Amino acid sequence: MTEPAGARLEGVVCRFGRVVALDGVSLEVGAGEAVALLGHNGAGKTTVMKLLLGLVAPDAGRVLTLGADPRGEAGWRARARVGFLPENVAFYDALSGREVLHYLARLKGVPRREADRILEQVGLAEAADRRVGGYSKGMRQRLGLAQALMGRPRLLLLDEPTVGLDPVATAQFYRLLDAVREGGCAVLVTSHVLAGLERRIGRAVVLRRGRVVGAGTPRELGRALGLPVRIQVEGGDGARLETLARAHDARLAREGAGWRLEVAAQAKMAVLRALAGDASVRDLHVHEPTLEEIYAQLSRRADETEGAAP
Ligand SMILES: Nc1ncnc2c1ncn2[C@@H]1O[C@H](COP(=O)(O)OP(=O)(O)OP(=O)(O)O)[C@@H](O)[C@H]1O
After folding, report:
1. How many folded domains does the chain comprise?
2. Is 75 in the pocket of ligand 1 (CB under 6 A)?
3. Is the pLDDT of residue 15 over 70?
4. What is the pLDDT of residue 8?
5. 284 φ, ψ to 5°?
6. CB distance 19 to ligand 1 below 6 Å
7. Is the CB of 55 under 6 A from ligand 1?
8. Residues 252 and 214 both lie in one domain
9. Which atom of ligand 1 is nearest to the CA of 50?
10. What SS3 state is found at 305?
11. Do 277 and 191 belong together in one domain?
């Protein structure tokens, strides 16, 4: 039997009084997959996590957490295999990191030695016996991740896990996540920090005002939006590059001592072949659309559609 998806929403509507937090949302996070849930403040990201945790019920549609309704009996059992890192994680400041984890280990029925192993895994072994009150923001986030990792979760829900982390700590955090994901865990992560995120996740789901406005790999999303691929050219003969740009409907501009070509994804290989065969070109750098560009374009389109609506 194939493993059920880590998380699945089918046509979910969720209201809080008159506020429609989610309006027909469908998404899936498979085992061993990392999906970024993106969107503006109030787009509905945390509500998705609350639904998957069984903390709120949908008004319509279906929610499945590790294959079960999170508010049903089987769902409560499945909850033991769900790790959650809330946006603002709080601990008892008077306890040490190790004491916090040992306490939570007892609540979860996890052996203490697993808690100690996880402290090492998240890079807190040295600080484990210091009071949490003296931890830096990054250390608190690591402890938050440690508690989410206890009990060998099959689904990890991480709400803004990299807030306050410096670039090195962020990279370490995502490396750790890679290891967990490669072990078959499904990971759903929200983030407002889009820079470099495309390298760290498989797919992205973009919410806007409670609706999915884009879903897919960064490459699929970039293609669907018609975003160009940027080619930086070192060296190169201006006249020849202009002819090449015209032939492929590309945009050519100077960039530093070289040039920048913006080409449609379909024309990329033809342009690259031509450039590679041009002896005046010293080097090439190819940049696919970033998640930041994709997100900006999706927001622009949604603004236009909403502006055009009666
Ligand atoms: N318990 C609640 N009572 C009333 N309204 C709520 C409640 N929880 C969420 N909402 C509303 O639902 C909408 C979606 O909120 P949600 O917290 O899911 O957004 P978000 O995308 O996580 O935002 P952020 O990026 O700011 O964390 C917002 O309009 C919010 O005000």
Report:
1. 2
2. no
3. yes
4. 96
5. -135, 140
6. yes
7. no
8. no
9. 18
10. helix
11. no
In short, whether 16's Cβ falls inside 6 Å of ligand 1 is: yes
**Does 201 share its domain with 284?**
no
Does 149 contact ligand 1 (Cβ within 6 A)? no
Report which protein residue has its CA nearest ligand 1's atom 1: 16
What does the pLDDT read at residue 164?
A: 74
Residues 168 and 273 in one domain: no
Encode pLDDT of 120-161 as tens digits: 988 888 999 999 999 988 888 889 999 999 988 999 999 988
Which among 19, 49, 55, 159 is the best mutation to test ligand 1's pocket, defined by most ligand atoms within 8 Å of the CB?
19
**CATH code of the domain in which 205 resides:** 3.40.50.300
| Domain match, 98 and 210 both | yes
The H helix count followed by the E strand count for the chain is 10, 13
81 neighbors 155 (Cβ within 8 angstroms)? yes
Ligand 1 atom having least distance to the Cα of 43: 21
* Helix residue spans in 92-165 (DSSP H): 97-108, 112-121, 137-149
- Classify residue 180: in a domain, yes or no: yes
User: What pTM does this model have?
Assistant: 0.89
Domain-embedded: residue 111: yes
Nearest residue (CA) to ligand 1, atom 7: 16
* Residue-range definition of the domain harbouring residue 282: 228-288
Ligand 1 pocket test, candidate residues 23, 45, 208, most atoms within 8 A of CB? 45
Same domain, 234 and 216: no
Domain membership of residue 186 (yes or no) is yes
